[in-house]
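The freezer alarm interrupted the setup, so I double-checked each line after restarting. Inputs confirmed:
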Amino acid sequence: MTPDQQANGRRPRDSAGNGLQVCRRLLVPYKAGHPTEIRARVRARLRALRGPQSGAQRASDVRDERQATLREGVRILVRAMRDEPVILGIAVAGSAVYGIATVAAAEVIGRITDRVVVPAFRDGETTTGALALTALAIMVTALVKAAGIVVRRYFAGLGQYRLNARYRRQVSRQYLRLPLSWHHQHSTGKLLSNANADVESSFWPIAPLPFALGVVVMLVFALVSMFLADPWLALVGALLFPAILLLNFFYQRRLSPLATRAQALRAELSGVAHESFDGAMVVKALGREAAETARFGKVAGQLRDANAAVGRIRGAFDPLMEALPNLGVLAVLVIGSARVADGSLAPGTLVQVAYLLTITAFPIRAIGFVLGELPRATVGWRRVQAVLDAEGALPHGTSSLNGAGEPAHLGVRDVTYSYVEGTPVLDGVHLDVEPGRTIAVVGSTGSGKSTLASLLVRLVDPATGAVLLDGTDLRELEPGQVAGAVSLVFQQPFIFEDTVRDNVTLGLTVPDDDVWAALRLAQGDRFVTSLAGELDARIGERGATLSGGQRQRLALARALVRRPRLLVLDDATSAVDPEVERRILAGLRDAALPSTVVVVAYRRATIALADEVVYVEDGRVSARGVHAELLTTSPGYRDLITAYERDAAERAMAGTDPKDQS
Amino acid sequence: MSTAASPGSRLGDVQSGSAWATFRRGLALSPEITQGLLVTLLLALVATAGRVVVPIAVQQTVDDGLNASGGADLGYVRWMVGLAGVGIVLTVVAAYHMNRRIFRASEAGLATLRTKAFRHVHDLSVLTQDTERRGSLVSRVTSDVDTISQFVQWGGLIMLASLGQLVIATIVMAVYSWQLTLLVWVCFLPLFLALRTFQRMLSGAYMVVRERVGGMLGSISEAVVGAQAVRAYAVEGRTQQRIDDAVESHRVAASRAQRLAATAFSTGEVVAGLANAAIIVVGVLLGVAGDISLGRMLAFLFLVTLFVAPVQIGTEVLSEAQNAIAGWRRVLGILDTHADVADPGEDGVRLPRGPIDVRFECVSYAYPSGPTVLHDVDVAIARHTRVAVVGETGSGKTTFAKLLTRLMDPVQGRVLVDGADLRDIRFASLRERVVMVPQEGFLFDDTLAANLRYGKPEASDEELLLAVTELGLGEWLDSLPYGLETPVGQRGESLSAGERQLVALARAYLADPDLLVLDEATSAVDPATEVRLARALEGISRGRTSVTIAHRLSTAEAADEVFVFDRGRLVESGPHAELVQKGGVYAALHTAWVSQSR
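Predicted 3D structure, all chains:
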């Protein structure tokens, strides 16, 4: 409870509950993320928990957030300059040249007015030489300005894209380094946008940054030039430039929370659309089109209002930004004409200052461009940094395995694992598989079989206990050792957007004959032959052109071509027709693979392939033995395995025609 | 199904190509944009006119103030500048209101447009939806609309203001000196003409950039979506190399486009310099000849600055306009795609609730420009019957289910429900009575309770629990950490594939349809659970008609009737026992299954 709220007294003292409890409740869902982001979310949640609060509290939150944004934004800019000092330095130099040339252009106009134009109009005559020199001076300043623009824009862009590329590489490195448990906590869409949109928005302010820095140089030169010309006119500039800067700051302060909200709503809208279209079939099947449209329309309406709020601020700012320099010019005209009239100022100087204010009006806005991008940049950068700072790669050891080409011994020692604390999926699993044996892991839906499978290839590490290969803990092995010895085939395999060959080899150098042999064993050779290009046929995004069964067979070939010492099949043939599956299993049996095999399965035929069955129940091995033995000793196993025939038998008992009952 | 769809069912862009047509049609679909446009345009006129205040004030100060015939007239300068100041304030007010109106109108119009397009995506047939990647459909109602609003509120405004200020500046110039006006136009005209060329070059360069973004996202998504596979096969290095290559090729393309843009942008500055030089040289000559006053000549220097901005950002504005038109086309493309499986609407039949019967009359189906996948199906399903549909992969089972639930319409023949053609039944009535559970149990990122309620929003927690218990899933529910309040994650990915199917089934059951169609809805569930589910469904589906597509033949054994499909034809139908005795296709399938599973 903050003092503000106590003073406010709208809610009873204990409304938010015990402080510690509240903290825990607040923190649990947000384990991952950048500290600032976490703080902001926690603040938001606290606010929601506390309900209505005083305006002062809210205002101070907003102030905190803005200050944090500015501070962090500047930090991003500094980081960018440090990452690309040469390229961005060149851009800034180009911009400074442009700024100085802009001031010089006004000087040139002023001098020409006094020395060439006014005398010519007064005397009614002029010289070709004077005119030629005039034209030359103007053209030179214009060319220098143009050159400054090209250098600034090109190098600023170059720097921006190099930064994007650099951080995209770093982010994707993290994706490849971080453990799967981290991946499970983050949605695909979020991770993709971290690498793409968030990196991009982090470095958007880099494009106008050199411009803005050059403008600072320009303003200094402009003020000096004005003071040298006339202190009274310089006063106009000395008031006008800070006024423009102030207006810019004020604008950004008002805009940034609105822009952030609009951005958040845009993401939300896209999330709603994504989910709704992904579930289009369900929406149709249950006739929920109108409800979905209402859901989408609600967010679209909020986004509309948020954008219109942005528009109100921008709609006032743009005209004011244009009007300020114009009002400055008018002031210069009034003050200047009085001074020209009393002879203390040459008319050319008046023209010079008025012109200077006119042509600096646009560049000054560059400072606003940078400030305007900062809120978006800080939001993006927080997300990027959360990825870069994420910890928890699986550490590797230094041991290596011997016995290449021989089946491996697998040991699972008292392994526990849980996704949600307090509800272990695996609870003390203990298991030994002798080299060359094939065991089937059987259990009901949600009994932890797939988790066990992923522990065996070290996709995750057990919370306690260990997985041993030839007696060595998987965690002690060098990088690459586990994948070199163990292959896991998933129920829903991932297919790369690549050729059939590369999908099987994944970069491993093996002759085509071996690829074909693996495909034959996986019963995938026939469908590959039917593809145009055969092994060279390209498979579209995530294997969209293949059926589920074809994808599974391709994935199986991918494992087999490696001749793994331990082969783990996690319901890997579930989408294959029973007859084809039978051929695959028979093939595996006859192929005399140098493998110890662990299969996760329901089907009787798959289980029949195994030398032994391990029955998993409630996260533990509840029974182990040959199939026939287990049928008598393990009631749970018997129930699971004989479900269909018991069902058939019971039906037969109940009567041949079920219709009679109804 | 990988069959290519015909152009008719494919999601497309607007057929008529012209940008103007797109623009007009787009405006027609978002009437909010054009409401009150006249007032906005008037405000725009005032706002733009304000831009020439300063050049005129300069001219007046010099000619009628400082160089007044009776010596410097400072009183006039003060009076005139005061008036100009009022003019500028007026301009600010007009511009503010113009901006506000444009923002409000465009946002309102585009919100309507995207909501209409969103709805239409759901109205399209499953087949049409599948011709396009989901992400691309999403961008049609999100980022594509954003490109339009960005253009209207930035590029479009600038375009309007640029045109306006060019016209007004030219008028003022022409009043001051036709010779210098001509000169300025001679300097700038080639650049205006070159804008299109610049823009074409730029848009070509940016097209390459966009393509490379696609490639980059594709390669990064492999590291994300394929994280398991990458880990399991330790191909991190290879995956990283692919990403690095894609990132680098994107960077190169973006830098190349930037070089073009920088060059195009700077030319405005060069031409402005050229124009200034020419104005002073020619202006002085005219002044010497007495054809122009000093103030007017100086005013030209200020008026020329009004030409610079339009050429400098002209290329960018044109690119943005092109993007906006392309975005608009893609949004309109959705609305212009014919919903080939459409709701008959008000004229449609409403069927009373109650037991349902179905008849297929000579039904054939072919995917657009594909071979026929279902031939002449003639079959009836009586009330209260439980039908199992079996056959090998690709035999036409799923097509049969999709026709039955009107996810597709037959190419030939008709499907009748309670004697009414499916095509004549209003969706609201049809979806209430016929519900299909597809194989992929898609769940929404919400709690279990919210997902169960999806088909029956008004269901109470008690009803949910009752439904779950009736399906024999009470024990499973108890094992979940937060019960009904368990969050299921994106697409339900916090649950296993089998659990998702359980939820999808319970969700459909709760919707309480008269005909329940299950398309391999329990394929990822263990046998004991499946049998338990099947039993529970039988119990509760009494009084209901149900059609179950199964690859486990246990379902068929329990059904009242079995439909056997083979290569797109219904080859056998009848009770299980009868078909086994017959020794045909079904008997063979059954024998194979028994040897597999027992």
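Quick read of the result. Confidence is low (pLDDT under 50) at residues 1-8 of chain B.
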